[in-house]
Write a structure and sequence with these properties.
By secondary structure, the chain is α/β, with parallel strands linked by helices. Helices cover 53% and strands 17% of the residues. It is built from eleven helices and eight strands. The chain has an eight-stranded parallel β-barrel with strand order 1-2-3-4-5-6-7-8, surrounded by seven helices. Helix 1 runs parallel beside helix 3 and helix 4 packs across helix 5. The longest helix is centred in the C-terminal third of the chain and has 18 residues. The chain is globular, with a radius of gyration of 20 Å. The chain starts with a strand and ends in a 10-residue tail after the last helix.
Length: 226
């Protein structure tokens, strides 16, 4: 199971990678544009924080296969490290995936809304496919169900690609796609924090502190008690 942070905010990335077992960062044109500064500076800043080995998913914005390939080669050479190029599951995107696969450039298929889109992308060469869970729900679909179908198709046809579930509005959706067999999830900083939150956990920790300090003193830790 891989936890990936869906943001281009450097402070959020620093915090998450300091606290949690993160495997990488995903971005998209919308997320990047929210930072309102130089595109390459943002990506280089992310790479500096997460290191060379962690995954960084960056989207090509071209709509023609040849241009997507050019962007992918440029991003790989300029940003470096463990980079995945996000390519939408449109016909020109599938064509680009086939070319990128031959060139050894890693691919994340994005804007996935059906299991058949995911299957075709995986066969074309995508290592990850990213179904948009909440957006599927918002068009009266079943986002978790689509994730489950993709997982099943990959198992039936012995495909090595992984499901990178995306687009969440709450922790429950994340929990359900993990139960459905998603190999990885990409979530914003708020949901990443929410995966650990529970009021009884906070209450229990507070009670431990009160009971301990009542006997051993405030600010005393196990290593201070002789």
């Amino acid at each position: 199971m891989l936890y990936i942070l869906d943001t281009a905010n450097l402070q959020q990335i620093k915090r998450a990678f300091d606290l949690y077992p993160m495997s990488g960062v995903t971005t998209n044109p919308t997320i990047i544009s929210k930072e309102n500064r130089n595109f390459l500076d943002i990506l280089k800043g992310i790479r500096e924080i997460i290191g060379e080995d962690k995954m960084l998913h960056v989207q090509a914005v071209s709509l023609k296969a040849e241009d997507i390939v050019k962007e992918a080669e440029y991003l790989k050479d300029t940003i470096g490290g463990n980079i995945y190029i996000k390519v939408p599951v449109i016909p020109e995107g599938i064509k680009a995936m086939k070319i990128l696969k031959k060139k050894g450039i890693k691919i994340t298929a994005t804007a996935v809304f059906t299991a058949q889109q995911a299957l075709m992308a995986a066969i074309a060469g995508a290592e990850f496919v990213a179904p948009y869970v909440n957006r599927i729900d918002n068009i009266t679909g079943n986002g978790v169900g689509v994730v489950a179908q993709i997982v099943e198709l990959f198992e039936i046809h012995q495909i090595d690609a992984k499901v990178l579930a995306a687009s969440f509005k709450n922790v429950q959706q994340v929990h359900e796609v993990i139960l459905a067999g998603a190999h990885s999830v990409t979530v914003n900083a708020e949901i990443m924090d929410g995966l650990l939150k529970h009021p009884l956990t906070d209450w229990s920790v507070d009670q431990f502190v009160v009971d301990w300090e009542g006997v051993y003193g405030k600010g005393k830790y196990t290593c201070d008690v002789k």
